[in-house]
Amino acid sequence: MKISEICEKLELKILVEGDMDREITGGYCGDLLSWVMGRAQGGDCWFTVMGNINAIGVCVLADCACIVLCENATLDDNAKTRAEMQGVTILSSEENSYTLATKLGNLL
Amino acid sequence: MSNLKLHFDVPGDDFTRAGEASGKVKKTLKDLGFNPEVVRKTVIALYEAEINLVIHAGGGEIDVEISPECIDMVLTDQGPGIPDVALAMKEGYSTAPDNVRSLGFGAGMGLPNIKKYTDDMKIDSVVGEGTTMYLKVFTN
Ligand SMILES: Nc1ncnc2c1ncn2[C@@H]1O[C@H](COP(=O)(O)OP(=O)(O)O)[C@@H](O)[C@H]1O
Ligand SMILES: [Mg+2]
């Protein structure tokens, strides 16, 4: 399912708009960057509260489809700039990763 | 055709720049048309090793050599060295300080991730002198 559709169905706010037509093929929840690096799959929707510049790097290198910042976690200014530069889609929600991942699971 | 060689200097303790070299290697490999899964494996391993240079070694250098058959990466630093490499390789083992953990690093999964995503991994480390890590990923 496309990022744009997931975005609508999960009522996510768009903080940085990348390629909204990219397919989301799975999901991963986690805040420890090496866990995400080692375990997330390419195409995953990554649910996290980690809105720093290093999270952007991890998303690009692990080839996740997008980042969803849960529970309104903040996106650092330099992370936003980096995400814009690299075309990484960053979404946000007030809901927690469990709730969002459950909803995603029902859609995929 | 001769192999493509890339060199990077990685500054220590600069977390805003950590991952730059891996990002550039990713772009190069993608542009060369390597299989996406090969690219992903290579840059995940390289990123973990690059982050370790930043966190644990006060910076260092990265050399990457790309041939059609394999990607070789050598990371060298003049940091404190690793006293017990077998212990350092264990999942969850980390000496990262708290300020680094708050950034999301220091899960002790870096070296295990590198092992998982490379076809060959070798660490030469001398306490008080530094560490050299050799990584290889086959492209087929
Ligand atoms: N280049 C290095 N120089 C010195 N020590 C290192 C280096 N790389 C790794 N280490 C040691 O190995 C441990 C495990 O590394 P790693 O698995 O990447 O976990 P983390 O980086 O999360 O601590 C580190 O905590 C550190 O003690
Ligand atoms: Mg590490």
Description:
The complex is a heterodimer of chains A (108) and B (140). In chain A, α2 links the parallel β2 and β3. Helix content of chain A is 42%, strand content 19%. Chain A has helices at 3-9, 33-39, 53-62, 77-86, 97-107, and strands at residues 13-16, 26-29, 44-48, 66-69, 90-92. Chain A is globular and about 35 Å long. By secondary structure, chain A is of the alpha/beta class. Chain A has a single domain (3-107), classed as HprK N-terminal domain-like (Udp-n-acetylmuramoylalanyl-d-glutamate--2,6- Diaminopimelate Ligase, Chain: A, domain 1). The longest helix of chain A is centred in the last third of the chain and has 11 residues, at 97-107. In chain A, α2 packs parallel to α3 and α3 (53-62) runs parallel beside α4 (77-86). Chain B has 140 residues and is α+β, with helices and mostly antiparallel strands. Chain B has a single domain, classed as Heat Shock Protein 90 (2-Layer Sandwich). Chain B is built from five helices and five strands, in the order βααββαααββ. Chain B has helices spanning 20-31, 36-56, 85-88, 98-101, 110-117, and strands spanning 4-11, 59-66, 70-77, 120-126, 130-138. Chain B has a five-stranded antiparallel β-sheet with strand order 1-2-3-5-4, with helices on one face. The model of chain B has no long low-confidence stretch (mean pLDDT 96). The interface between A and B is medium-sized, with 21 and 25 residues. The complex binds adenosine-5'-diphosphate (ADP) and magnesium ion. Adenosine-5'-diphosphate binds next to α2 and α5 of chain B.
